[in-house]
Automatic annotation (TrEMBL):
It comes from Adineta steineri. Residues 279-355, 374-630 form the Xrn1 helical domain. Residues 631-673 are annotated as: Disordered. This is Uncharacterized protein. GO terms for biological process: nuclear-transcribed mRNA catabolic process.
Length: 673
């Protein structure tokens, strides 16, 4: 989703950063070396049908068409959403519980003629797209088959490295993409000549892309051919509906958002302060941090801050506060991708000063402005006398959350377990009172498994997506966690027009309580469910014409058993002509060519794959973190040692071990600015 209203603000303020082209002009417009696809964006495009097989087929055809049009010359990286940090789960949980109530948008009534907004049209439940479902498992399998086919039949595919990061690899899709780019830049020291193109409608990609400091990065997304709004299709556009010849323009256009042009715009503005541009990279990082104050998927939006002029605090107000903070501290808010605490506190003090007396004019259903006590009573149920102490605690939690979000965007999650423990944001006025800020988080922790995320985010109406043995845990009162899944709950419109922005007043999930409740049920999973519930690595596809392929073909013992394994991987950068940095080892998870009837139908256009021209590897693009005191140094990277040989383990065990040594457990690299 990203920052609400960000694209509207951005294109109005800096119209030259966007160019619009047709599909046939994509290659010339993007000049792409490395193409990254946010697959969930593509899935949502086709998720209007209840035919899951057709959705998968449409997604595959869409990927095929994009690659043919854009023609990446070095890399294709396809990323699906995996399990998210806990900070994201309250937002996901709110969406699922809202869906369970079938609450219509207030805006729907305005567009009754628009098929896109008719609730009855949506028959494909978005729960299918979550990690661990049968749908995402089948989609991943079909993608593997499709990629192998294209590498055998299409010359353009053979010349690129193809990486699939499916739903079993932890992390949100857009963050997996950016982490990969960041790791390659960090370990190669210089990727300035690479033209990166990220395909997604998520406005977060602009902010994430800026934080990589890659000099040649573009964000690509579909736009309405009539009104040029992001993510719209011409057939659903209100402008087209109201025209005399509806449906006359149903072609898809594409918007290319040029991040270097955005940086030049930021650089060329008159800021009335020489401090602003002493270090351009740090200034850009600061600007991203300021944008995060307008909203994100991890913190509730402040009612006082908005891009639009009717708000108490707009971007102009925030930039004024930023100028005052720079002048006072003579330093930036951020350094090397980390927030400077004193400078942040100064900024928040200045921001609070813009809401001088705590007046609160939004949401719309309040007739007039009112002050802090009524807000905290109405939204937080606070009835005690020490309002300052309580509001300061909420504001401190929020500023700590802002620190977490920025770290997540610039480096990766500082903690997989942290979350903001309130349903509402504080008033901006209370930011001025934040003094003691603890920016230390609990140990980084590890991501939950797919079924645990389902339990943490699904409502009782989604229980059928859970393993059969787990379903009673959510619905039967004899289990301690049934209190987390109420069927009756309060929904606060909170002054918003769209139901997706309503606040659902349900209890926050306690991870320890959930883990304890699930402990005795993990062993009841079937082998197929265990496979869907695993944590895994990226998959790297290599054609026989590539030097990596030759290296791995030679690495078999006399019994044809692979000697390049998870415990003994190869550093890909040591292989000649390989432009990837990271570790690879043989994928021993089974034969992907065993297709069922549905998969045969989906892949009917991509058949007859020889078995010896493409190899499938597990791929980790950063160093492993040792979890054991007993470890050995291998190629300058510390790896876990284990008494189990790969041949002695089941097909599930190697993937389950991934959580102890995978990239999501390792502190990310830090860019220097």
């Amino acid at each position: 989703m990203g920052v609400s209203g960000f694209y509207s603000y951005l294109f109005k303020k800096y119209p030259n950063i966007k160019s619009v082209c047709t599909e046939k002009n994509l290659a010339d417009e993007t000049k792409c070396h490395s193409l990254y696809l946010d697959l969930n964006h593509i899935i949502h495009k086709y998720a209007e049908s209840n035919d899951k097989n057709q959705i998968i087929k449409d997604v595959i055809e869409h990927i095929d068409r994009l690659v043919r049009s854009i023609k990446p010359s070095q890399l294709l990286y396809i990323a699906m959403d995996g399990v998210a940090p806990k900070a994201r789960m309250p937002h996901q949980r709110t969406k699922r519980f809202l869906k369970s109530k079938n609450i219509p948008d207030r805006e729907v009534n305005r567009f009754e003629t628009n098929e896109q907004h008719k609730l009855e049209k949506k028959t494909f439940d978005e729960c299918n797209i979550k990690p661990g479902t049968e749908f995402t498992c089948q989609l991943s399998k079909c993608l593997r088959y499709f990629i192998r086919n294209r590498m055998h039949t299409e010359e353009d595919w053979r010349s690129v490295n193809v990486i699939l990061s499916d739903a079993n690899v932890p992390g949100e899709g857009e963050h997996k993409i950016i982490n990969f780019i960041r790791q390659q830049r960090h370990q190669q020291n210089n990727t300035n000549g690479t033209f990166h193109v990220v395909y997604s409608s998520d406005s977060d990609l602009v902010l994430l892309g800026l934080l990589t400091h890659e000099p040649q990065m573009k964000v690509l997304c579909e736009v309405c051919a009539n009104c040029e709004k992001i993510g719209y299709h011409a057939k659903d556009c209100n402008t087209n509906k109201s025209s005399s010849t509806p449906g006359s323009n149903t072609k898809t256009n594409y918007a290319v958002i040029h991040l270097p042009k955005l940086i030049n715009n930021l650089k060329s503005q008159n800021y009335d302060s020489p401090v602003f541009l002493k270090n351009l990279e740090r200034f850009v990082d600061d600007w991203v941090l300021i944008c995060l104050l307008f909203g994100n998927d991890f913190l509730p939006k402040s009612h006082s801050i908005d891009f639009f002029d009717k708000s108490i605090i707009t971007m102009d107000h925030l930039m004024d506060a930023y100028r005052e903070a720079l002048t006072k501290n003579n330093d930036y808010l951020t350094k090397n991708g980390t927030i400077t605490k004193d400078c942040l506190l100064t900024l928040m003090e200045k921001v609070g000063g813009k809401d001088k007396d705590g007046k609160y004019r939004r949401p719309l259903y309040y007739e007039d402005k009112f002050r802090r006590p009524l807000y905290y009573k109405d939204k937080f149920g606070f009835n005690a006398t020490d309002l300052n102490t309580f509001s300061n605690k909420v504001a401190t939690d929020y500023v700590q959350g802002l620190y977490w979000v920025f770290q997540y965007y610039s480096k990766g999650p500082p903690s997989w377990n942290w979350y903001y423990p309130h349903h509402y944001a504080p008033l901006a006025y209370d930011f001025s009172n934040v003094k003691n800020l603890d920016l230390k988080f609990d140990p980084p922790g590890e991501p939950v498994r797919p079924f645990e995320q389902m339990m943490a985010t699904f409502s009782p109406k989604n229980v059928d997506y859970l393993p059969l043995a787990w379903q009673p845990i959510m619905t039967e009162e004899i289990f301690d966690i049934s209190k987390f899944y109420p069927t009756e709950f309060v929904v606060d419109p909170n002054g918003k027009e769209r139901s997706s922005q309503y606040v659902v007043l349900i209890p926050f999930i306690d991870k320890e309580t959930l883990s304890t409740a699930l402990k005795d049920f993990t062993s009841k999973l079937t082998p197929e469910e265990e496979k869907r519930n695993r944590l895994d690595y990226d998959s790297l596809f290599i054609h026989s014409s590539h030097s990596i392929h030759q290296q791995f073909r030679k690495s078999s013992d006399a019994n044809k058993k692979p000697i390049i394994t998870e415990e003994n991987p190869v550093q890909l950068q040591d292989i000649s002509d390989c432009k990837l940095v990271g570790h690879g080892w043989t994928d021993d998870t089974g034969d992907i060519s065993n297709l069922n009837a549905d998969e045969e139908a989906i892949l009917s256009d991509y058949k007859n794959i020889p078995n010896d021209e493409v190899i499938l590897l597990k791929y980790c693009h950063c160093s492993f973190r040792s979890e054991s005191v007993e470890s050995e140094k291998h190629n300058n990277v510390r790896f876990r040692t284990t008494t189990n040989q790969p041949s002695q383990r089941s097909t599930v065990q190697p993937q389950q071990q991934a959580s102890k040594s995978a990239p999501w457990c390792k502190p990310p690299p830090t860019h220097q600015n």
